[in-house]
Amino acid sequence: MALEKLQMIPLGGLGEFGMNCLALRFGDDILVIDAGLMFPEEELLGVDIVVPDISYLIENRSMVRGIVLTHGHEDHIGGLPWILSELNVPVYGTEFTLAYVEGKLDEHRLLDDAELIEILPGKRFTLGPFSVMPIRVTHSLVDCVSLAIHTPVGIVLHTGDFKIDLSSPDGHPFDLQAFADLGKQGVLALLQDSTNVDRPGFTPGEKAVIPRLDDIFAATKKKIFFSCFSSSIHRIKIAMELAHKHGRKVALVGRSIDNSTEIAQDLGYIDPPQGLIIHPGQIRDFAPDKLCILISGTQGEPMSALSRAAVDNHKFAKIDPGDTVLLSSRIIPGNEKGIYRVIDHLERRDARVIHDDGTNGLIHVSGHGSQEELRLMINLVKPKFFIPVHGDYRHLKRHVELALSTGVPEKVILLEDGDVLTLDKDSAQKTGKVTTGRVCIDNNSTADVVEDTVIRDRKHLGEDGLFLPIIAINKRTGAIEGQPEITTRGFAADDPDLLRNARDIVVRTLEQSSEEERRDYGVMKDKIRGDLKRFIQKNANRRPLIMPIILEL
Amino acid sequence: MALEKLQMIPLGGLGEFGMNCLALRFGDDILVIDAGLMFPEEELLGVDIVVPDISYLIENRSMVRGIVLTHGHEDHIGGLPWILSELNVPVYGTEFTLAYVEGKLDEHRLLDDAELIEILPGKRFTLGPFSVMPIRVTHSLVDCVSLAIHTPVGIVLHTGDFKIDLSSPDGHPFDLQAFADLGKQGVLALLQDSTNVDRPGFTPGEKAVIPRLDDIFAATKKKIFFSCFSSSIHRIKIAMELAHKHGRKVALVGRSIDNSTEIAQDLGYIDPPQGLIIHPGQIRDFAPDKLCILISGTQGEPMSALSRAAVDNHKFAKIDPGDTVLLSSRIIPGNEKGIYRVIDHLERRDARVIHDDGTNGLIHVSGHGSQEELRLMINLVKPKFFIPVHGDYRHLKRHVELALSTGVPEKVILLEDGDVLTLDKDSAQKTGKVTTGRVCIDNNSTADVVEDTVIRDRKHLGEDGLFLPIIAINKRTGAIEGQPEITTRGFAADDPDLLRNARDIVVRTLEQSSEEERRDYGVMKDKIRGDLKRFIQKNANRRPLIMPIILEL
User: How far apart, in whole angstroms, are the C-alpha atoms of residue B495 and residue B484?
Assistant: First the structure.
């Protein structure tokens, strides 16, 4: 038998942010690293999420030994339900990562059939010809690992997402020694996170936000609404500690933050003192200066708890004049308008809004390493070959330049989705191209409707059709002009009852919304879409693509 | 006759960025300041521009004495074609401002009927009971003025857009003395631009970009593509001077930058040495290091010259490996994805892209005054009443706080669109509300098609219908799957010939696009929309709302 070579095939994340997925193949064995999703560009109307095309894995399904996860963010695990429904292979992840995966698979009723295998940082395990050593790294999420994959031709190190936080709030330090050891052993190829390749210097540690947040807690007289990414476990922990220090009770409002906190508590990452956490229904029982409300929705998502509170449409989260709303997060590009819309609503309620606009001090830090951390990693592990991962083309290119500037790797390779990189002990060459692409999935963006979030492929469009409710709203009065019209394609055009009832649903949704909501077309579209989806699913057992069109008259 | 009072009624721009328009009424006379447009939020599908609802002016049409413009940016003049077609009143503006207005009205075939009256900074003119003194200010555009409006109850000063540039590249200084004089005379009310109220300090002058741009010109070995807002006359001038200094010829590529430069040259704002400017067709005749190409499209607009060059689809602007593309502009929120898409395309062509991401030095400055300039203006003119203009609600609120912090105004008033503020010598009170709102206009976004840009009101939708071409694209191959389908509403459903021909148009547009364009859905939608619009207009003399829907399979 000829000496076999290693193949490295990125299926997603090299040429875009999100949907990270990479295959390593040696002979007839394939190991997959991560299975992420991406949120779509606005051009893809009606699409909720995008996942990588895994034709390559499906064509070679008998070879796929498993999927190894670096951590629990959506861009690393969010594609799992779709991928597992096509290809049911074992999934390896740390305890916390698997807790997120479980919740996700349960939502999609895939949990019973899934094989989830827990891995431990520092504990090697075997997958076919690969021996995988997870190495603890620090990031905005907890229990994250890099993967040192020992292959017959050498060690491939995939960093996953990381920053080098020298004082991690969870007490689990970044394992510098393990990386230094790898450097001594010799690393064949380093695949490194490109997210912050544009940022000079070092990324501040998670604890760097404490002084400024402490000031804000100290200076606030009324309620504090604290919003961060629901997976920012460190940040949630810090908020709880500050609330406790300043004599405030903590209420959790919003499904995602509630969920995430529950997992973090179960696994011991957060251990709030007895009595600190109250039920949202108890908010009214406490004085405003005794409350800190952790609330979902930093990105202005129309159906999030914060968006609803901003238009005074949340049962428990009431925003009163003089309350403070603290957004301890960044603006993900593309979400600006939604976020500013929420901020404007909050300002109209006379809330004080503190967000990361550069003028409010260090209230948020990134979870990704900056240039010096990227250089440090390269110097620590001294790879022969270097391949940037996670980023748009320009980030990968910048990262190539950065790696070259260190003078460490023998060769730096700009790989894109679908490229096949073939490696042996001495060489790394692009040798081909496999099918890759983006698969659009019409999930349900209404977070409340768990039972409805069955993943479907856009390919079913021909089957289930297109459903376009057209609503004319009088901008002056906020009233509906005439009846909503419904245009369909490939579905229900011949069913006047269904169309009439669907129209009634739209009218009812509009009527039951507040005036402030009706002026917020993002919210209205989401509500109409959710209500229609449930109705059509129930009455016609179909899942058409629903695209509400709102016209201002 | 009872003593009459002054009414101040914002019709747009107080609660949003854009569509600035404000009415001043005294007795039976109304003066209007500015008539801007706004670009729509993405929720408003198929809408190109948004203009203020001017019902209030139409109801009182016999009282409207004229529209006075502060300067020529779209958010101050872009609504004119629509407003003048409803209400043909005289328009007052400076020479440069009127040159922009003329072009705009000509496009919409309204120029012949329009009465345009040139005003001069420092030269008072009368409009009914109002005596208006234009005062020269500095901004990113040239020939901009504040308006000091002498009314029977006192002076109302509207700043328009401004920064205090102490060394304006056009040699026309900010008229500090005139503002100081007003302060001595006593100003009843100051209305001030809120755009940069969040920025501490002073905004750098326009010339502050020169050192860094000079460095870049000096260090660049191949072609320089220089892109800025087409109305940034100062920036265009600076780019030309640097090109001249570094021995590069200048080619202007893109209709808007060409247009703008022509006006600036005609009016003496730009005076390039003989032979500096070459025709785009001559680009090929010069060595790369002898060329600077001024190109439209800093915001990633899909049909702009830069976007087309980025996908190698521009006749004259060819981007070769090693060329430098300099974006001397900011990212307008909401345009991030489009801009990054263009940057990614450029990077794939191995161009060096320099944009204002915080790491490239001072390559762009804002045209709006920061906090200290806003405070300085308040201190200079010492108004009795202060009213912030131009901004989302949160900016107006911040500006109220900033004005209060100066201790100068007796009263600070947060006014929103539609509020009626009634003033006399001693008091300012909100006394009512008039109808305001946003009117959506389905213009044509394809900048090339001048003859097609007749403004129409969305109210015609019932008449002209909705036209939805649905195209399924195979993401892997970029090929169209099956035939495009066309769904219509209220239009042409009974005309199989028209639908078949429209389908052919879509197929042809797709076929004639490069693979790179086909992967850029923003570009494809714009092209399909433009081609169909021309076809339907010509063959059916209708103007339906056209919304291409692209589905990835």
Answer: 17
The answer to whether A150 is annotated as binding is: no
Interface of A with B in 495-534 (CB under 8 A): 521-522, 525
In chain B, what are the domains? 6-202+366-450 (3.60.15.10), 206-354 (3.40.50.10710), 452-552 (3.10.20.580)
What confidence tier does B50 reach under pLDDT thresholds 50, 70, 90? confident
At B207, the amino acid letter reads K
Q: What is the pLDDT of residues B219-237, one digit of tens each?
A: 999 999 999 999 999 999 9
Report CB contact under 8 Å: A485, B489. Answer: yes
pTM listed for this prediction: 0.80
Banded model confidence at residue A552, pLDDT cuts 50, 70, 90? low
State the ipTM, two decimals: 0.71
Choose, out of B14, B41, B43, the residue to mutate when testing the contact with A (most A CBs < 10 Å). Answer: B43
Q: Which of A329-343, B276-290, B484-498 has the highest mean pLDDT?
A: B276-290
Q: What Rg, from alpha-carbon coordinates, does chain A have?
A: 25
Three-state DSSP class for residue A551: strand
pLDDT band with cut points at 50, 70 and 90 for residue B246: very high
Report, as an integer, the average pLDDT of B513-536. Answer: 80
Q: What are phi and psi of A166, to 5 degrees?
A: -85, 5
Q: Specify whether the CB–CB gap between B163 and B369 falls below 8 A.
A: yes
Task: Point out the residue among A41, A357, A397 whose CB comes nearest to the CB of B347.
Answer: A397
Distances (CA, A) of B505 to A195, A350, B484, B502: 41, 53, 10, 5
pLDDT for B269: 96
Cα–Cα distance between A25 and A106 in angstroms, integer?
Answer: 30
Min distance B277 CA to chain A CA atoms (Å): 32
> Three-state DSSP class for A44?
coil
Kindly provide the residue ranges of all beta strands, DSSP E only, lying in B94-211, ordered along the sequence: 116-118, 125-127, 130-137, 144-151, 154-158, 187-193
Whether the predicted pLDDT of B19 surpasses 90: yes
* Phi, psi dihedrals of residue B406, rounded to the nearest 5°: -75, -20
Asked if A368 is an active-site residue, the reply is yes
Distance, in Å, from the CA atom of A109 to the CA atom of B302, rounded to the nearest integer, reads 41
Task: Give the residue on B whose Cα is nearest the Cα of A354.
Answer: B394
Cβ-based contacts of B198 with chain A (< 8 Å): 357, 359
